[in-house]
Amino acid sequence: MENDILNYTQNRELSWLKFNKRVLEEAQDPTVPLLERMKFVAIFTSNLDEFFMIRVGSLFDMVQTDSNTIDSRSGMTPGEQLEKIFEAVAPLYKERDKTYAEIKKQLSPYGVCGLDFKELEQSEKKYVKKYFKEQILPILSPQIVDANHPFPHLLNKEIYVTANLKYKDKTMQGIVPVPQFVSDILYLPGHDIRYIRMEKVIMEYMNLVFEQYEVTDKNYICVTRNADIAPDDEALEVNDDFRYLMKETLHKRRRMAVVRLEVAEKLSEEMERYFCGKFAIQPNQIFRTKMPMKLAYMFAISGNLPEAMKRSLVYPAFTPQNSAQVQDGSPMKQQIRKKDLLLYYPYESMNPFLRLIKEASTDPNVLTIKITIYRLAKKARLVEYLCAAAENGKEVTVLIELRARFDEQNNIDWSERLEEAGCRVIYGFDGYKVHSKVCLITYRNRNEIQYITQIGTGNYNEKTAAMYTDLSLMTANAEIGRDASEFFKNMSISNLDGMYNRLIVAPTSLKQRVLYLMDEEIRKGGSGRIVMKMNSLTDVDFIEKVSEASRAGVKIDLIVRGICCILPGVKDYTENVTVTSIVGRYLEHPRIFSFGTGADQKIYIGSADMMTRNTEKRVEVACPVLDEDIGRQINHYLKIMLTDNVKARVLKPDGNYEKKEQEEPRTDSQALFMQESLNAKWKAPENPQTFLDKIRHLFGK
């Protein structure tokens, strides 16, 4: 019985690769506009880069330190997982290259042309050569590799042009970094968007870079380095400033071991041995790619298109709408005191929450504003309002997580700005990232202390709030407010063991409460009902409880965007479980937990996925939905997502995903939510039954 779980689970890394394949499928979808398809190729590529830096890097560390560790969901050692990963990644490279080439070909009639040097017209070749000699050649930093010139350190995810060099009877390697401070592409003269990538320009003119040498075997390469650094592992004194520690961590990340080498041209056996020796890698860590190693410039190209062309190549413009539940001109605090409010990004705008903070910054009755921050945009009105509040004499406490992966430097910069304005900035706990999304406004009302609490499923990031789907609940509920106040007090004194009446908080109570509520549904047997939405699912305790609930007859629908280690529909284990993944225009991000039906239903929203790192090694917060209208609203969202038959894929017992059959009515959940937000208008709250009747009428129920 001990290994029963292996009958209905799969490896997390291989599951993630299947998620990224679903991203690539969006790039292959002919109904998606061409430049949006190219963006999905870019997202797939960026995802894969991060996967190698973090997950593959972590497995390499495990091979070095504890190679016999067995993955509880697949029974594999770290070394066996790496073999399976490299085996699964190789065909994805080929599929991505083919997808990129097809999209590139279809963009050409629109005048968007990424060119090889041999495809340039004669006048363009002259232009490129002149540009190279005048603007690029003077700033290059070429190097030879021989006895007197050691092989240089190659920076993570930077491109280097290489070649074999021969001078008299000596042969050596030449390496030229593509300068980081020049554009990734060179636009060619003319009305169309014709361009050539900078590494191709440099590769073409390597003979001008190394004039005295015979140049052969030109190539360009890119290394991916292990970036899985935990600051807690760094040997620094306890009293060292944590912000300084993070700066040191970022510096070290640039020099970590190579986990992948990408090459543009096929390597000879000799060159393969050479690079394997220099980077201490195996041949299966070398991947040839026929498409650009960086694709970020595609986002800039779409911004430079003429408006008429853009309409054909990108999604129709959509602006997050003002929530139909929010009245313009009425102070947010008053509206929330009357009734809880739920915002659904990006269909609805983040502005009501920002308005709440801005109004609080000047409200004479507001005493304190406290907030946890994980990721912020490069430009953040939220920070402006928090700084203004501090400058206006409010006590502002910001718990900012400096270890938010790849946003560390941005968060360091913001923490310094907040401190300068007089905010109290704290950094959380050793060994536990603070991933919660909580904001608490405390104010005095006729000598009584009252609260407005906001709990979200996503970051306070004004840029991603227009790109990720997320929920943001604002409530004046006194119990939730007192819990939030207790939460911030505990965060300030490094107490992870706080007790709360309404909020459930990881690492102490969130998983325990979820498992308890699942037990309640198990006791109902066939009338039990569980619906959960999250980004990833890996936690073994949760997986085993899902199987137990399924065996008891509970109907379980899981909406999991990314990694899902449980396999549904496995006889005797998960026959009552379905798993749906939605990949579309927006990144699905809410975490919703629903238990039961009707009057007994309990709904929570929060920041945590059912992953062991979230439930046991992070500070996460989930909040009950107590307003009946908002409960119906969330049920509506879940129902539409479960009926999606356009962008939804269903996980099968063998671990593969299949699209649903395109039956009528066709339901694209994201498109429907966009349309609903466009159609919605503010009106005075209705009684709940009228609202429910309208929903039933809308969907023919």
TrEMBL record:
Drop me one GO molecular function for this one.
ATP binding
> Binding residues for ATP, per the UniProt record?
47, 468, 561, 589
Q: Which reaction does it catalyse?
A: [phosphate](n) + ATP = [phosphate](n+1) + ADP
Task: Give start and end of each Polyphosphate kinase middle domain.
Answer: 124-300
Any one of the GO BP annotations:
polyphosphate biosynthetic process
Q: Does the keyword Disulfide bond apply?
A: no
Does the keyword DNA-binding feature in the UniProt annotation? no
User: Briefly, what is this protein's role?
Assistant: Catalyzes the reversible transfer of the terminal phosphate of ATP to form a long-chain polyphosphate (polyP).
Question: Mind telling me which HAMAP family this protein's record contains?
Answer: Polyphosphate_kinase
Q: What name does UniProt use for this protein?
A: Polyphosphate kinase
Which organism was this protein described from? Answer: Extibacter muris
What gene name does this entry carry?
A: ppk1
